[in-house]
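Risk register update: the risk of archive-format incompatibility is retired. Evidence:
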Amino acid sequence: MLGTGTFSYKNNKTNTYQHTDANGVTTTFAIVPINTVVANLQFLVAPGGAQVNVPAGWSLSDSAGAVPAFGAPSSFFIGWVESYVLRDATGEVLQVSNQKQQSIRKLNNANVQAV
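Archived output:
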């Protein structure tokens, strides 16, 4: 399974992952950008395959585990302003972490410097 990586809401690229649990059951899911602020976490029959409902026992919530993500039973919606944890029946599987950073650039040759 993935150790580290990134996902962008801006490049229109779908990221697909597989998780195999302790019983040997493999679950395929993908993060699909919808626009520059929202993506959809979908479960698939296989990589590139048809979308299926969220498997029994799977959930997605904010990183504190307090607020379930919107969208089940067919998928979950995620936004760039929050961090999320994907869980199966046995525990945490994947964390989607907002890096909480913005790029800064000066415009029109303004005399701006970091101090």
